[in-house]
Amino acid sequence: MASQGKLILFFIIILVVGAVAGVFVYPKYYGEKLRPWRLGLDLVGGTRLVYEIDMKDVGSGDRESVANGLRDVIEKRVNLFGVAEPQVSIAKSGDAHRLIVELAGIKDVKEAIKQIGETPQLMFAEVEAGKDKEGKDTTVFKPTSLTGRFVKAAQLNFDRIVGKPEVSISFNEEGAKLFETLTEKNVRKPIAIFLDGNLIEMPVVQEKISGGQAQITGQFTVAAARQLVERFNAGALPAPIVLVNQATIGASLGSGSLNRTLWAGAVGTVAVIVFMLLYYMGLGLTASLALVIYIVLTTAVFKLFGVTMTLAGIAGFILSIGMAVDANILVFERTKEEIKKGVSRLGAITEGFARAWPSIRDSNISTMLTAIILYYATTGFVRGFALTLFIGVLMSMFSAITITRTMLAIFTSTKK
Known about the structure:
Blueprint: H1 4-25, H2 30-34, H3 41-44, E1 46-53, H4 63-80, E2 84-93, E3 96-104, H5 109-116, E4 122-131, E5 137-147, E6 151-158, E7 165-171, H6 173-185, E8 191-195, E9 198-201, E10 213-216, H7 222-235, E11 241-249, H8 254-280, H9 282-304, H10 311-340, H11 345-377, H12 381-415
Antiparallel strand pairs: 1-3, 1-11, 2-3, 4-5, 4-8, 6-7, 7-10, 8-9
């Protein structure tokens, strides 16, 4: 274990960082001027936009893929503008498809429409080597006249021999001629494909391609290939989006629910601290102080990285508080067992952490894996819950193996 002086210095650093973090996270102090909290649609309201997807030139079998591609592209587009946790969904009624976009914290409808923009733009570019302003080698993309309006459709296929997924693209008559010229000019060279100015793929041309049919192959997973198909279809202009409804919506839950949730979390934390003090006494005091530092540091991480706080997200964080205490309880019980064996207090603490760590690690990793699955397999407010739970559990591991351990080592050595 580190020397007493280093432990005390580390503990002082933790206290200073905790104090700065406390000022940063409290809304009425300087932290709010530096970086305000990002609250979700359920707490602050925002703007709701409804777009009609024009499917008249899209085959019935491709409509779902086109709609999903549009949703994916629009969601990425509004995220680039820093909109807090946008809710983008597809509504279908009969043959009509609508794209519904809800943006938290934006009350200016014109600003919201500007952020959404129009139909996603697909563009093909040639790739050449060039020099930057400092004379260093760089890649230069030269836009071509081949754009999404020449793409008829894209679909997911599988290689008949090895069964690997591949993306098939078909062009209209004019697009087929442009694509043939482009591939003839760039055999053994890559062609860059951009969607809304973002590079989505850069396949290498193996040979001149005629007839308006092309295949993109590579080390795709099925999910990655399907996403690429949806993006191609979203960038093809036969399915433009037209704004048909716009409205400013109020918070569905509001500040009252937020205050009640925060109070519930505070009361629960105080109850946990009281229990730890009564049951573990001196060890409980250490755990309680570590818990307070953990809460402050974790909320600072949420605010610093711009995590959107919804009521579901706050619930995920409160759940992680209880799990942070669980780690301390495992350590304390192991420590008490070592003390009963006659091991010195300092040795018992060291052995207690060593024996409890595998249990802490495994339980927290399983929770984080669950949070990751929830985040990528769901949408909306559930993702907020999963994100705050993941960060909270990760920080609780840091708290258990650093803050609590440091304080126990200092106080035990001092007492000795």
